[in-house]
Every structure is written in structure tokens, then in C-alpha cells.
């Protein structure tokens, strides 16, 4: 009797306790209290993310009825306020989390993520994410679907533009920098928004570079390469992940309990939540992994996808699946609890409505300065014959050729969802306003648009170049040639751009090529026709001032490639941290043009018709000065498990231009229980040196840096000999070498 009385009193007090509304209560208690009050419908409602197609009474009624936990693409701040107020008027008043693709800046558009990776500057990447969060939060967004952490080794894949490149270490360091920028020190800070590590996992290995395609990744490769950046952000407090579209080894990632439960929850102890990618739960059906929506819901929820983006299989099927005993209500509580945990951490229960600042931060001078710095540091000087750049003072007239020089929208690149073209400063306008007073600027479109096959402008362009001292030719991709579902089988310059450059070269005037692109391209036929090549990616709002400052020598380029540039699509996949194979090609086994008389010699892993080497190496980038590396020293050459090696190298700016340099450290594990890559990036430092200045750059290597997942999936460092390299790129001719032994 007494027990029953106590139970009645307990449940009576519980039903009126407001622990979940107490900001001082422990978050886990708040979750537990709120779950105890929620109906099954309300729990399922939290797992539904809807796209706001249009604002109307039905949508508001659904929210008020507790059927929606989140929106994406909610449009303007008025919509968000209306939706949030409807949520606050629901029975339990659980606020919405509002998501948006804030991928590279918000209204101040930053360089695309692949370009930001080329800065090798974590602090600058963090600042970029921070200003993006400030602008997005001002307009009611409290969750971004960024950073994209897919390791990308295939430039045919349009989404390589959104990635941080081919290397797990660089992607990890920069991915962590991005979430620190988005999430700040604490998720409930005024300027913080929740980040989202995507697309979990292996999406970048999509077959043939065709988007949404099959990925086959052995577990050792999955853990040693593709999972690394996700593990890094998980260990650094990322709030959410997004499950991907791809089929991973036969199990789609949006219903893959190995990656979503065994790795993400059991091993990494991740306690945020996972949202599916757009309709990815529905796509389990065409994948042939679910026969209908009910089975799709059953497989996705039991694998650990907390929230369904846009499709509604959870809403339609979870109640039945629970009643049929196929889904455990305790698992539902766990899935919903993870969502509530992030909403509590974001402080949404205390501050559900956007706090509009007195003075808008959007497109502030400070934000544009960060965007410009990011653009400048992202640009990679690939060639500079005769040190032609920066343009010298004896140049009194410049031909600017190419409609890309004057196209505002194309500077922004893919996945720009909020930026306005009208806010972009183009290269043509920047050069005119900055230098138009003291040099003659002659402009010609050169091509109608980047993909045009018409040569109508060739003659006019040629005339303009003829009458100028030098030509700056803008070539590359428009903003639509990369991004989701925009893969290309050929990665050459689109349209007739190559013909145009070769035609202009006949004038024998010096040509500078500025390439705007969302991916590595092939342009080998042009390297002998031009003096300099500045690879500028898609630089964002401040594209023009950044390109202008570099071309005219206000600042030296310092970007380094975060991804390998192949000579030909035929070489793909081509990446620096490859295995050695049993027959590595010798330096002299370079490919020859098909049909040459010589009989190609030797039996090794190379091509008959193209050099096996890349056009440009991972980590490569020139400067307006020269950096000399010397005195590579190791504090010890033999280490045991708890030792560290202090590595030092002297870097000297031997030229006459102040510039930044990214000093890179690689190792090679010569023999392993699994074959090991010929090189692995384990450290980098970006330094600034004045002419003549030297600096001793220091790194620390510990046994932890030597670990990898072995054939039994143990994370181990194996005894044996290691090589260590330090230099300016992953090209062996740019590296000093030393060795050490792990006992
Ligand atoms: C898209 C993309 C994903 C994006 C999401 C929401 O399909 O795959 O990267 O965040 O849908 O727009």
C-alpha cells in the first residue's frame, strides 16, 4: 500500500515538475524529465525535419501540434520567428532547431571550402566559420550543415569543391577549426550555432566520381583515411552529424549500424544527434536495401539516425514499428534524447527567438576583411616563369580577357545559398578601381560564357592583347560546374577557353592565367604558352580585391594545394599518400606521347602515354620569394613508446619579397603488418618571413603520430624504421629527409 502511495505521489509531482524548463538543472535530468512528459507522437515529431516550402497555417498548425522538431531552408527571420512561436505554443513548448547550408560564409561569401583548405591556416578557417555563424545567427539560423569532411581523391566529383581535400590530417585540423568557429567555446553562446559533420561516411570515394554512387572501402582504409576527420570533430565536441547518400560496402550509410552505432556511439561515445541527408532514408528503397518506407524507417532508426530530413517514413511508420515490437521505445527515447540534448546545449529553451543586434553584422567591413584574407591565402601560384608576377611597374597597359573576370555570381562558387551576386567585387572592377588610374585596362569577354563553344570574340581579344603590354586571361569553371550532382568526366577547361589562350599566345605578349574553379583542372597544353598561372578557386565576395592585390604585388600568394592535380583524368584516382606497390615506377619511366617510336622500357606501375607523376603535387604552391630549407635535425633517432622526437628545420627567405610559407612534415612507415603509404602528412606550420629572414621551425613527433589501424583493427604503432620529411610540398624533390627507428 505504502509503495503504491509513494508511486502515486511521485508520478503526481513528476507530471507537474518543470525540471526541463530549469536552466540550472543538469541537462540529463532535463532530458529525462521532458521525455517522461512526452507522448509518442511528440517524440516522433522531434525526429522530423521539414523543408519550409511555403509558410502557411497548416505548417504552423503542425508545429503547434508538436509534429516537427526542425526546419531547414526556413527563409527569412520572420518565418523563423513565426515557426518558433508556434513551437513555443505547443503543449510542451519544445523549440525548433533551424538548419541551413552555411557552407562557406553566409552573406559575406568566403572562398569555397577546398580553397580555404589551400590556406593551410586553421586560425583563418576558424575565423571564417565564426563570422559565418555570427551572420547566420543574426537571421535566426542555429544549425549549419557544415563542415563537409569527405576525403576527396577524385576531381571528377563535383562535391570535391565542398571538401577540405584528400588528406585526413589536413581535413581533421581544418574541420576542427571550422567547428570551433561555428560552435564557439559553448553552444549556448550568443554567436554559436551547431555544426554538422557530413557526409558520414565515405561519400568522397564514390565510384567514377559519379555523385551518390557506390563506395567500397575496406575497414582499414575506412578507419585510417575516411573516418579520421569525423573522429577528430567528434572528439572536439561537434553537435551533430549527417548520414550520407552512399552505399558503403553494400550497406547504405543512412542505415549502417556499424558506422552509426559501433563506431560513432560505442567507440567514439558521440552523444549529439545524426540527421539523414535529404531524403536519404527514402533512398534506401532504390538502393534495394528496403522494400518500402516502413522497412526504410525500421532500418534507419535501428541503425541510429535520429532525425529524418524531409522524407516522412518515421512519421508514418514508427508507431506501428513500436507496436509490432520491431523498434524498442527505449531506443526511441535515446534517439529523441540526443536531439533534446543539443537543443538544451544550444540554450534554445532559454533563448528560442533570434536576438536581433542593434547594428547588423552582415557584410561588415571586418567580415569582408576576413573574406579577403581567406581568398588571398587560398590562391595557389602554380607557375611563374621569369618571375613575371607580380606585374612590374614597366607595364603600362594590361589586357583583361575572359567573362569570368567580370562575372559576380561565378566568383562565389557552389553551395552559396545566401550570398548575393550584387555584393561581389569582381577582378575586373577591383583592378580598374585600384590600378585604372596608372595603367591602361583593356577588357574583352574572350568567350560569351565559360562553356561557350563560339570563337566570335577571338579576333577582338587578340587585337586588345596586341596593343597591351601584358594579358591577364581569366579561365575556368562557372559556379554551376561543381557542387552536388555536378560531376564531370573530363576536367579540362570548358568550352573553347584552351583554344583562346593558345590563340592569344600567338601574339607573343606575356600572359598570366588566372583560373577560377571548384576543382582541380587539366590545362597542361597551356603551361608553355603562358608566363604565370594563379589558381584562384572560387574566392567569394572579395575575389577581386584578393586577385588584384596578388597580381600587382601588394601581397605574395601563399596557398598550397590540398589536393593532387592530375595531368589527365586517366590517372584518377591520384593522391600523394598512395601505397608503394611491388613495382613503383622509376623517375625515368615517364610516359610518352602515344605513337612515339621508342619502345617504352620496363615493367612498372606507370602509363605508356602520360607521365605517372601528377601535374601538381599535394602541398605545392609557389611564392614571390624563395624559401630555402636547411639543417633538418632530430633530437633522437631511436624512440620507444613514450618518447617524443623534437624536429627542427631552418627556413630562410632568400628572396626580396616578404611572404608566408607552409612548412610541411611527412613520415613514412617503411614496413607494416599492412602496407603503408609512401608519405603521410603529420604536421604543418605556416610562417611569415621578411626578405633575408630565417626561422627555426619546430615540430614534435610522438609514437601516437605513428599509429594506424592494423589488419585486426588495433590502433598500433609498429616497431621498425621510419623516414621523416620536411619541406614545401609532398614532392620528394621539395623535401629534406631524415630517419628514425621505433624500438
Ligand atoms: C543536400 C546535400 C547536403 C545538404 C542537404 C541540405 O542534398 O547532400 O550536403 O546539407 O541536402 O541542403
Number of domains: 3
Helix count, DSSP H or I runs of 4 or more residues: 21
Low-confidence stretches: none
| Total beta-strand segments | 26
Structural class designation: alpha/beta
**DSSP helix fraction:** 25-40%
Overview of the structural elements:
The mean pLDDT is 96. This protein has 743 residues and is an alpha/beta fold. Strands 11-16-15-14-12-13 form a 6-stranded mixed beta sheet, sandwiched between helices. Strands 4-3-2-1-10 form a 5-stranded parallel beta sheet. The chain has 21 helices and 26 strands. The site of alpha-D-glucopyranose (GLC) has 7 residues, from loops.
Overview features:
single chain; 743 residues; alpha/beta; TIM Barrel; Rossmann fold; Immunoglobulin-like; 3 domains; six-stranded mixed β-sheet; five-stranded parallel β-sheet; 21 helices; 29% helix; globular; binds alpha-D-glucopyranose
SSE layout and pairings?
Layout: H1 2-16, H2 27-37, H3 40-46, E1 48-51, H4 57-64, E2 70-72, H5 77-88, E3 97-100, H6 113-117, H7 122-138, E4 143-144, H8 168-183, E5 196-200, H9 219-226, H10 228-235, E6 240-243, E7 247-248, E8 251-252, H11 257-267, E9 273-276, H12 284-287, H13 293-303, E10 308-309, H14 313-323, H15 329-345, H16 365-378, E11 380-384, E12 397-401, H17 408-412, H18 427-435, E13 440-444, H19 458-466, E14 470-476, H20 497-505, E15 511-516, E16 532-535, H21 543-551, E17 627-634, E18 638-639, E19 644-653, E20 659-669, E21 680-689, E22 694-702, E23 708-709, E24 715-716, E25 720-727, E26 735-742
Parallel strand pairs: 1-2, 1-10, 2-3, 3-4, 5-6, 6-9, 12-13, 12-14, 14-15, 15-16, 18-26
Antiparallel strand pairs: 7-8, 11-16, 17-19, 19-22, 20-21, 20-25, 23-24, 25-26
Amino acid at each position: 500500500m505504502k509503495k503504491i502511495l509513494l508511486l502515486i505521489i511521485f508520478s503526481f509531482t513528476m507530471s507537474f515538475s518543470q525540471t526541463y524548463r530549469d536552466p540550472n538543472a543538469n541537462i540529463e535530468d532535463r532530458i529525462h524529465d521532458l521525455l517522461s512528459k512526452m507522448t509518442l507522437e511528440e517524440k516522433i515529431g522531434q525526429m522530423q525535419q521539414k523543408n519550409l516550402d511555403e509558410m502557411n497555417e497548416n505548417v504552423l498548425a503542425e508545429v503547434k501540434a508538436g509534429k516537427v522538431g526542425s526546419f531547414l531552408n526556413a527563409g527569412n527571420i520572420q518565418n523563423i520567428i513565426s515557426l518558433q512561436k508556434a513551437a513555443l505554443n505547443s503543449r510542451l513548448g519544445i523549440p525548433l532547431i533551424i538548419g541551413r547550408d552555411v557552407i562557406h560564409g553566409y552573406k559575406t561569401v568566403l572562398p569555397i571550402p577546398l580553397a580555404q583548405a589551400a590556406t593551410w591556416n586553421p586560425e583563418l578557417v576558424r575565423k571564417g566559420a565564426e563570422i559565418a555563424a555570427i551572420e547566420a545567427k543574426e537571421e535566426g539560423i542555429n544549425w549549419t550543415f557544415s563542415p563537409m569532411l569527405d576525403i576527396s581523391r577524385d576531381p571528377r566529383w563535383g562535391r570535391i569543391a565542398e571538401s577540405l581535400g584528400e588528406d585526413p590530417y589536413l581535413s581533421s585540423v581544418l574541420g576542427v577549426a571550422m567547428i570551433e568557429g561555428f560552435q564557439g567555446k559553448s553552444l549556448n553562446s550568443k554567436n554559436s550555432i551547431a555544426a554538422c559533420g557530413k557526409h558520414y561516411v565515405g561519400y568522397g570515394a564514390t565510384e567514377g566520381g559519379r555523385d551518390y554512387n557506390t563506395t567500397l572501402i575496406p575497414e582499414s582504409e575506412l578507419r585510417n583515411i575516411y573516418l579520421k576527420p569525423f573522429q577528430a570533430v567528434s572528439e572536439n565536441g561537434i553537435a551533430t552529424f549527417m548520414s550520407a547518400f552512399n552505399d558503403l560496402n553494400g550497406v547504405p550509410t543512412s542505415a549502417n549500424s556499424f558506422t552509426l552505432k559501433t563506431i560513432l556511439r560505442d567507440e567514439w561515445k558521440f552523444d549529439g544527434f545524426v540527421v539523414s541527408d535529404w531524403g536519404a532514408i527514402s533512398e534506401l528503397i532504390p538502393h534495394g536495401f528496403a522494400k518500402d518506407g516502413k522497412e526504410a524507417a525500421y532500418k534507419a532508426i535501428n541503425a541510429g539516425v535520429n532525425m529524418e530530413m524531409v522524407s516522412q517514413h518515421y512519421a508514418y511508420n514508427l508507431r506501428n514499428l513500436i507496436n509490432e515490437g520491431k523498434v524498442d521505445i527505449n531506443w526511441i527515447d535515446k534517439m529523441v534524447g540526443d536531439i533534446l540534448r543539443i537543443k538544451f546545449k544550444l540554450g534554445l529553451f532559454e533563448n528560442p527567438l533570434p536576438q536581433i543586434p542593434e547594428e547588423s553584422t552582415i557584410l561588415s567591413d571586418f567580415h569582408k576583411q576576413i573574406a579577403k584574407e581567406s581568398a588571398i591565402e587560398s590562391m595557389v601560384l602554380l607557375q611563374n616563369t621569369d618571375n613575371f608576377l607580380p606585374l612590374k611597374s614597366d607595364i603600362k597597359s594590361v589586357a583583361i580577357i575572359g567573362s569570368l573576370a567580370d562575372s559576380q555570381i561565378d566568383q562565389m562558387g557552389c553551395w552559396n545559398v545566401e550570398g548575393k551576386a550584387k555584393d561581389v567585387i569582381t577582378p575586373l572592377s577591383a583592378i580598374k578601381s585600384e590600378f585604372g588610374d596608372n595603367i591602361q585596362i583593356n577588357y574583352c569577354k574572350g568567350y560569351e560564357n565559360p562553356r561557350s563553344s563560339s570563337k566570335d570574340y577571338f579576333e577582338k581579344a587578340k587585337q586588345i592583347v596586341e596593343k597591351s603590354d601584358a594579358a591577364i586571361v581569366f579561365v575556368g569553371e562557372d559556379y554551376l560546374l561543381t557542387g552536388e550532382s555536378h560531376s564531370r568526366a573530363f576536367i579540362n577547361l570548358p568550352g573553347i577557353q584552351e583554344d583562346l589562350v593558345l590563340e592569344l599566345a600567338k601574339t607573343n605578349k606575356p600572359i598570366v592565367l588566372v583560373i577560377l574553379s571548384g576543382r582541380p583542372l587539366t590545362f597542361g597544353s597551356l603551361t608553355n604558352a603562358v608566363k604565370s598561372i594563379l589558381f584562384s578557386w572560387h574566392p567569394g565576395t572579395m575575389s577581386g580585391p584578393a586577385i588584384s592585390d596578388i597580381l600587382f604585388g601588394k601581397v605574395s600568394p601563399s596557398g598550397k594545394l590540398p589536393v593532387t592535380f592530375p595531368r589527365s583524368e586517366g590517372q584518377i584516382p591520384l593522391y600523394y599518400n598512395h601505397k608503394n606497390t611491388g613495382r613503383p615506377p622509376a623517375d625515368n619511366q615517364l610516359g610518352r606521347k602515344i605513337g612515339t617510336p621508342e619502345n617504352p622500357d620496363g615493367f612498372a606501375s606507370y602509363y605508356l602515354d602520360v607521365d605517372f607523376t601528377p601535374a601538381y603535387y599535394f602541398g605545392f604552391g609557389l611564392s614571390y620569394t624563395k624559401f630555402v630549407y636547411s639543417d633538418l635535425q632530430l633530437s633522437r633517432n631511436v624512440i620507444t613508446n613514450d618518447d617524443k622526437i623534437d624536429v627542427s628545420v631552418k627556413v630562410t627567405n632568400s628572396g626580396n619579397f616578404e611572404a608566408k610559407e607552409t612548412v610541411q612534415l611527412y613520415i613514412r612507415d617503411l614496413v607494416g603488418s599492412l602496407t603503408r603509404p609512401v608519405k603521410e602528412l603529420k604536421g604543418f606550420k605556416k610562417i611569415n618571413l621578411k626578405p633575408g629572414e630565417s626561422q627555426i621551425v619546430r615540430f614534435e613527433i610522438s609514437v601516437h603520430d605513428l599509429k594506424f589501424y592494423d589488419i585486426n583493427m588495433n590502433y598500433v604503432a609498429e616497431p621498425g624504421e621510419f623516414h621523416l620529411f620536411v619541406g614545401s610540398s609532398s614532392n620528394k624533390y621539395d623535401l629534406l629527409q631524415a630517419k628514425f627507428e621505433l624500438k
